[in-house]
Recover the amino acids of this structure.
């Protein structure tokens, strides 16, 4: 099997994922997976598609993450892994879709408007 690549995005984070057959090593930005995501919850988020399909030790995953925060990067990586697994075996799509991993989460941060302290918050109104 050759290397399969896919892209995942979430908020401002972009994950470029490369999957090939191997022993189950996950490398992110040339760092070990557990070192990059120290939080066990984020490690769980990244491994969810592999757990659902029960193929944890079958593929080596190499990812390049850029932008956003750790949570956005973890979810972008999850989407990238999901898309790559679907490219490898299209039969996996219904199981992954059932858990909501196939759909990109479109929520983005709303921009700050001029004359306001935040996107929607207004300065206190003074009548006099």
């Amino acid at each position: 099997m050759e290397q399969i690549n896919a892209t995942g995005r979430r908020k401002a984070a972009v994950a470029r994922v490369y999957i090939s057959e191997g022993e189950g090593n996950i490398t992110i930005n040339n760092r070990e997976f557990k070192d990059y995501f120290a939080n066990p919850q984020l490690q769980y988020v990244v491994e969810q598609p592999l757990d659902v399909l029960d193929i944890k030790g079958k593929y080596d995953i190499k990812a390049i993450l850029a932008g956003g925060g750790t949570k956005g990067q973890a979810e972008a990586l999850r989407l990238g892994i999901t898309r790559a697994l679907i490219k490898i075996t299209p039969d996996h799509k219904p199981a992954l879709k059932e858990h909501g991993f196939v759909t990109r989460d479109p929520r983005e941060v709303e921009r700050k408007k001029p004359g306001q302290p935040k996107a929607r918050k207004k300065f206190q109104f003074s009548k006099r």
Observations:
- Residues 110 and 122 are 15 Å apart (CA to CA).
- The longest helix spans residues 70-88.
- The longest strand covers residues 13-21.
